[in-house]
## 1
Amino acid sequence: MQSQDKYSIYKRICVNNPTKRLKLKGEVMSSVGLVLQGGGMRGIYTSGVLDFFMEKDLYFPYIIGVSAGACNGCAYVSKQIGFAKKMYLDYIYDPRYINYKNVFKGKSVLGMDFIFDEIPNSVNPFDFESFKSSNHRFIVTTTDYTTGEPVYFDKDECDDIFMAIRASSSIPFITPPVNFSGMQLIDGGVSDPIPIKKSLQDGNESNVVVLTDGNYMNKPRNIKRLAYKMYPKDTKLIDWVFDMHRINNDALDYINSLECENKAIVISPSKHIKMGIVDKNRSKLEELYNLGYQDAKSKYEDIKRLYN
């Protein structure tokens, strides 16, 4: 069975069948979580979703994000409409932001200092005070480069949550690991790409899950031997990356089961827009942002019922 077909079956059974729709009106939820998947430049879809939420003054008490999801989440916590969109669109042709030539120089394709230091501190100022004073619980998901296990950082308990966000965004083989909190950390998507179980463990009975790509991942083609030759010192990381499809698909299975049980609302692209993790196609990025905005709008009434 193809991955897209499996996902379509779930959606047909759990969403398009009127008897299986979310029936949330009148239910009392102790807490509602917002779970944000990563996805590199596909994260602009989440920017559209969250900008719609902010325009409607819809804020969740708990937010957990991975990689691009964590980047979007911090702008949501600081209540800066349009901030994340600008981060994706305004600098894509600046070589300090994305530079493919760095691959041949053994350097990071993404300009992490430019993205996580120069832009938010001077070029496109981030509202650090609003972020720090927010009463929202904000969790960032990273991966321990030594063990391959997920490591979570809470905004209110972490010495430097923005360094944790940088670590969560350190895509394997594209950007280097980040030394933080006594660990080497990499992209949270390696170990926990959609941290729905963490949200449930933290007490959220219901969740709104934003996926940048709701399709199931195919098993990587048989190029592991080539990867070992290219990155002989990173064999354990290669093994983890080649196992990401299983972890991702298990998470999607679990989220779909929660959706069937009326414990989750899933927002994912209603239209397929092909895009790479590091993509500089501005028209596609704008299209994906607008799609996120419209998809959030279509789920707005369902989400409001969570609070009724």
Note: Strands lie at 32-36, 62-66, 137-144, 150-154, 178-180, 183-187, 206-210, 264-267.
## 2
Amino acid sequence: MDRENSSFLLSFFILSLLVTEIHGNRQGEALNNLHKSKFRASSQIDHKSEFEVQELADDSILHSQKGLKEKDRIVRLPGQPLVSVSQYAGYVTVDNFAGRAFFYYFVEAKHSKETRPLLLWLNGGPGCSSFGYGAMQELGPFRVNSDGKTLYKNNYSWNNVANVLFLESPAGVGFSYSNSSSDYKTNGDKKTAADNYLFLVNWLERFPEYKNRDLYIAGESYAGHYVPQLAHTILHHNKKATKTIINLKGILIGNAVINDETDSTGMYDYLASHAIISDKAAYALNKACDISSDNITSECEAAVNEIQKDLDYIDLYNIYAPTCKNTDLTALPKKTGIVTDPCSENYVYAYLNRRDVQEALHANVTSLKYDWEPCSNVIEKWVDSSSTVLPFLHEFLKNSLRVWIFSGDVDGRVPITSTKYSVNKMKLPIKTVWHPWFAHGEVAGYVEVYEGNLTLATVRDAGHQVPSYQPARALSLIKYFLDGTPLPGPRRHA
């Protein structure tokens, strides 16, 4: 076994021993569980084959959407403060035969909605809710109070600059469902991309005013797979039809899983460099743990145990953030700040499982036998997971799409070191060297721009879910991305 491949497998081996105890939210746990399954010797997940677009029968693509838009209009959510923007939510069927339908939430831009672009947001997992995380804890117009009953405004919502669409996918995530239970055993990267495409073309039929609008796709974590794979699928079908079916203009991915090898090695380098694991333990991993052997040495086991103890009591997804100490709801809402409460996942769970909330959202129309969960408990298997999406990023650059990759710099799970290692694999010439970028009068992060229109940016003091921890900086980032202008450096700031 060559040294590079051995080191790569070793990292996943060690990770599989550690992840069951790492503190963090359910989205992070889902990613850890995938990696445990993916690199187990008996794994049934296909991670070696290249991603291929699933071809679709022409008669199965579009379904009638007549009259459904107005039925999806949200009058007002329970406990919602007054706002003047339009909200919609409901289901789009992606497979009539199987009875597979995806739930969406859509909020139009606060101003100039007729000319603002359409932004599709996807969360990762796999198996986690873009509504429960993206909309309700990160970049949507509201966040849930600690009473689990009322909402408060998010002044840094991304609908300040775009019309924002949140999608729960694949089937079994959040309110999205299938009438065929076998669907929960066949989800994977390929099927998710195909279904996301079917959702999008049908949603555009329901909202025809957005058919020719500029579309950008964004997401975080395992959406580092979802976003490029959907973008690739869109380009494939546009080319096949010799016309623009969907007017895709670019992608934006954050703390994203994009290349297994570098994602893993970058994680341990980050932990050692941030004084979370010792240099001695990091060295011992490489020296004492031989993945090519079935025999785990006492030295290897000692290194693993030491690292486990180091990670036991922190949130790996924001290494400096407090963890949730009390999951109980409060009788009255606690005082809120701009940074998401570490217990907010519990507030969202309580709110979205209220019957009056589900009725207002036109959700759970089939009376599902399980609760809404931030990450799915009903998806039984993930059948394929590509080892890399880097070839797609090259494809997008060749097709003149805008590609931005951002990274919260205190995420220890898919840290900036992983992302830098992955981008370096692309061997792109540097156009603008590494430098600080500014927002609201201070350094918001650092940025490097590459030939071909790829930007790599950090967001200072942000964890895995960047808009939760640094909402103002995240809003500045998305504004410049959508405008197609460089992040402001020292001269522009001055």
Note: The first strand starts at residue 87 and ends at 95.
## 3
Amino acid sequence: MFNSLPRTIPRPYLLTRHHLTTAPPPPQDTALANLILTSTNHRTLAQALHSPSIQWTQALVNSILKRLWNHGPKALQFFKVLDHHPSYCHHPSSYDHAIDISARLRDFRSAWALLVRMRSRRLGPSPRTFAVLAERTLRGRFKADCVSYNIIANGWCLIKRTPKALEVLKEMVQRGLSPNLTTYNIMLKGYLRAGQTKEAWDFLLEMKRRKCEIDVVTYTTMVHGFGVVGEIKKARKIFDEMTMEGVLPSVATFNALIQVLCKKDSVENALLVFEDMVKKGYVPNTITYNLLIRGLCHTGEMQRAMEFMGRMKEDECEPNVQTYNLVIRYSCDAGDIERGLDVFEKMDSGNCLPNLDTFNILIGAMFVRKKSDDLLMAGKLLIKMVDRGFLPRKFTFNQVLNGLLLTGNQGFAKEILRLQSRWGHLPRQFKL
């Protein structure tokens, strides 16, 4: 009987020393969640989460957020740290989880900031996002307040679902809460964003009929909203009425009017408003100047635009990267590449550093005239671009190399190709 048993144990039944002494490693989401919970140093945590060894996915991020569900502040810290990852971008579902956690903590400021960021990245918000918020704030175990309802209403307005926002407003009143000025401004902005100017105007008249307080934000919203759809006369009328009603316009109000005049009327009328603004003692900001410079550039008045850049510095309002990019782009579009390069040199040697758009504008402009010198400049810009930490798209890199080869600059092309091997984005199919 015993002789029939095998003399050796089959391999599946053998236990190695490793299995006897070492427990299997925890899943990646568990290990990362524990790291986040035990971390006390923000910088160290950011370095760990930004490590190239971690392959972030939507599923992994959502799993970690769920594991940190009972540690809301830590979950939000993790989400914010990963939001600055050099290559990973959050998925809309991850935003929904983070917004849900914020609302559960009654941290509506963070919930609103997440909604705004989600929208700026064109990831939503979606109806599901607002369903999450509504479930958490309006029908949850917490008592919703005016701020809660305002966030939900504003969310619906962001995606142009004004009837839904109005439903939230009605529910708010039914629950014994009085809408405040922020609520009314949200609805007005929502109507105007959706192009519902008649509804916006009727809503404003209803506010006046009920003797609701109307502030500078209300008037600024109306000036901009009516101006954007081309109703300049009504926008001007609202702007003039506000001072008669005892509400002084702000710099933002002037900016709103200047913007719509530049786009829908004339730059000259916008300049008149600007001069009136200065006479009344208002101090224009960078936005004011950028609006006028864009308007002047768009009408081909490049010299006046350059003069306004000089006026900015006289008023101790330094041009920013948007200012420089505007002038560079329009100069190049007008065929005045030399002026564009001159502005770039002033920018590069000053306090305002060029960004990725600056380099892309100039490199693209170098191919218009198809001159050998221009393409050499494109190569130099490409090198400077990478030295500043901006990686060119594969298309841009190939375009510059092709241009250099076609104009007989093989030596420079080879030099860039050698540099590119160090940058880590060498196109596999490109050969010299």
Note: The chain is about 65% helix and 0% strand.
## 4
Amino acid sequence: MAGGNSVGDLGHGIKASRLRSYVMSFDGETLQRYATIRSRETVSIIEKHTEALFGRPEIVITSQGTVDSSKDEHIKISFGGLKRLLLEAVTFGSFLWDIESYVDTRYHFVAN
């Protein structure tokens, strides 16, 4: 499609993501705030949720200090499945953000 954004190679004729346009409309400060994990508890919850979905990862660090990906498994996922996975991630992140905001207003913890 000349001049338009489409995902033609997927054969779906779907225009570029409205979600991407929405996210890219945020200013840098807002993006940074939403991309920041606010507590160690949140990191723990994300790790547990990810492990429940995909299993426990075997992370091996090479002598060069990089992650060895030679034993990584590959998953095959449809475009619809990818959209559902993305929406679940956004929903889960939004839920965590709302809960952290509630806890911050209800209980006054000292930042570490």
Note: The helical segments are 18-24, 28-35, 40-54, 79-106.
